[in-house]
Specification:
3 domains, Immunoglobulin-like, globular, 422 residues, Jelly Rolls, single chain, 6-stranded antiparallel sheet, mainly beta, disordered N terminus
Length: 422
């Protein structure tokens, strides 16, 4: 249940702060078992270690697991129509490894983070099913492992990834979020993967709403309290230039965090001369919020730009100046891997190449790229348009598909909404 907290705001110098969040990297060697007959649930694969090894982040394609391609090189339709996977696999796969979280995480909550997965995941600790499942094609999959983790003890973490089609969101599977035309229907885990230790009372998310006319930014802070007791909290917001560290504003708030989710809002005045963001001057700010509750501290930083975009009849207007979008499609075309890159260097190269051709804009057709693509676009002043994973001629006929797409829209907005290149 969400509760809105009424906070007392006042301007104060911002104290230095440190984060209590620590994390354990999960990249490296895992074991894997392909489950093409879908017997793993009944056979209790959760909690088992398997004979075949795989490196994660990565895919079964890269590990040469699955059905090997038998097509011969030729200028014929099957070879030219779309990408052909060297090793194809579209069924559940189970990934397991041993973990041991530090013993000093005893008083923390433990959150599993998997940056990008195609399509459905479920998680086990020592054979015990973790509550819930995730199915986003566009945002990280996260699980609360707290009830299942025993700090200081070796345990087995198992992730079941099922890349079979779940919703009818695309004609002939052409939507680029789930297709073999450009990106392939890979099975695996990409990007950051870790377990993080967080405070019982913490910042769950930070959403920023800058306003050019008033030169302000409103911070909407989602506070989560996993304990059963209401906790008094002090929140501090500081806004600085991302590159020049120039201080623009700081405010503080006091509130009560009840059990579950609560929301507190803080608004900062940035000053009449606060720089705006556009392709010629992509000035960025860092907004840092620190939450102190008793002896625990939670810190979150998000980057944003100050810009206003609207239309005037047939013109797009950015910060009161007309802009012209010169762009092209980006259809998740990465043929060497069949997967989108999650590192910033790859996206810097892509945007720089587009800019060399005079472009200032990319449309991500029927898919949404990872976080690195947004961060680099913000920094380079490159306009991007992201889309839901849909390319359908029957949209609206299947209720489950519509609900999935609505949920995806909310997830995209929450995860990437502070990026002002989009």
């Amino acid at each position: 249940m969400k509760n809105t907290l009424i906070a007392w705001l006042f301007c104060l110098p911002f104290a230095s702060c440190t984060s209590s969040v620590t994390q354990m990297d999960l990249s490296g060697q895992w074991t894997v078992c392909l489950d093409s007959t879908d017997v793993g649930m009944d056979a209790s694969f959760g909690g088992k270690l398997f004979d075949t090894s795989i490196t994660l982040p990565g895919t079964t394609d890269e590990a040469h697991l699955g059905t090997k391609c038998t097509l011969k090189p030729a200028l014929e339709k099957p070879q030219l129509l779309h990408l052909t996977r060297a090793y194809s696999y579209v069924d559940p796969a189970w990934y397991s490894r041993e973990i041991q979280v530090p013993s000093d995480w005893e008083e923390k909550d433990c959150i599993l983070h998997l940056e990008r997965v195609l399509w459905d995941t479920q998680v086990w600790i020592d054979g015990q099913k973790v509550e819930g499942h995730e199915e986003s094609l566009t945002t990280p999959h996260e699980y609360d492992l707290t009830p299942y983790i025993q700090p200081g003890k070796k345990q087995v973490l198992t992730v079941r990834v099922d890349n079979r089609k779940r919703y009818d969101m695309s004609v002939n599977d052409l939507a680029h979020a789930y297709t073999d035309a450009t990106q392939v229907k890979w099975n695996g885990i990409l990007g950051d993967m870790y377990i993080k230790a967080v405070e019982k009372t913490r910042i769950e998310s930070l959403q920023l709403y800058p306003d050019v006319a008033s030169r302000t930014v409103k911070a909407v802070v989602s506070v989560y309290n996993s304990s059963s007791q209401t906790a008094p909290v002090n929140l501090s917001l500081q806004v600085k230039g991302k590159d020049d560290s120039k201080s623009y504003a700081s405010v503080e708030a006091q509130a009560e965090a009840v059990k579950g989710y609560s929301t507190v809002e803080l608004t900062c005045q940035l000053g009449d001369n606060a720089p705006l963001w556009d392709e010629f001057n992509p000035y960025l700010y860092d907004a840092s919020v620190e939450l102190v509750s008793g002896k625990s501290t939670s810190l979150t930083t998000e980057t944003f730009g100050l810009r206003d975009i609207r239309h005037e009849e047939n013109k797009l207007v950015l910060n009161d100046k007309p802009i012209f979008l010169r762009g092209t499609l980006e259809c998740c075309i990465f043929p060497l891997t069949g997967t989108p890159p999650t590192d910033e260097a790859s996206w810097e190269k892509l945007y720089a190449s587009a800019r060399e051709y005079g472009m200032n804009h990319l449309r991500f057709h029927s898919w949404c790229p990872p976080e690195a693509a947004f961060n680099v676009a913000d920094e380079m002043g490159f306009y991007v348009q992201v889309e839901l994973p849909v390319w359908s001629v029957t949209l609206g006929k299947d209720f489950a598909t519509v609900e999935f797409l609505r949920a995806e829209a909310k997830r995209i907005s929450k995860e990437y909404g502070n990026n002002y290149s989009s």
